[in-house]
Amino acid sequence: MKITITLLFFAIFLFSCKNDTKEEQNSLKGKIYTKINEIPELKNFEFQAGSMIDYEGKKSIEYKFGISQFFNKGKYLLILEEKIGGKSKVISNKILDTVMINSLKEDEIISLCTCRVNGINNSEIIAVVKDEKNDTEYLNKIVKAWKANSIDGRIIPINNLNEIDCVNESYGL
To answer: Which is nearest to 148 in space by CA: 105, 114, 109?
Structure first.
């Protein structure tokens, strides 16, 4: 019995240490910026794309959360951010979470907020998709995907990629 309790205590201790380390790795969480170069760690990144997320998954005129994509030396930084206003009319961005994609293959693209799950639009989905250069409306070869959860402010990996497809930006061109 003592061995079981000791092992259980040890397992809980290891698990809690693992979670603390994960939180510390995202040193950008909570930082506020108007222009990306205001954050020293990101001054060499350039903005590539951005999109707003439907507030809490509902269609609304109040868009409070967004995803921005930045690039530097083959690395893509995706930022889940909350739009915040101050006393002035300047809108700032508060970083809630980030994902770094170290590189993409030549036939891969990042799809922000243009994906569906089981045929239903979901602007919280971010995906790395194989761009097949074909004339189909949706691309369904998903390499990796995440959900930008605006409720808890985290970017969460999605394991079941079979239910996801994304708009083919070059469809019909």
So the answer is: 114
How would DSSP label each residue in 4-37? HHHHHHHHHHHHHHHHHHHHHH-TTTT-EESSGG
Strands, sheet with 138-139, edge to edge from the N-terminal-most edge strand? 120-122, 115-117, 164-167, 138-139
Closest Cα partner for 82 from 102, 100, 68?
68
Residues 36-72: tens digit of each pLDDT: 888 998 889 999 999 988 754 555 556 789 999 999 9
Average pLDDT over residues 121-150: 90
Look up residue 62 and give its DSSP letter: -
Residue 38 DSSP class? G
pLDDT tens by residue, 69-99: 999 999 999 999 998 876 667 788 999 999 9
Distance in Å from the first CA to the final CA of the chain: 69
Among candidates 133, 138, 132, which has minimal Cα distance to 164?
Answer: 138
- Contact at 8 Å (CB) between 127 and 115? yes
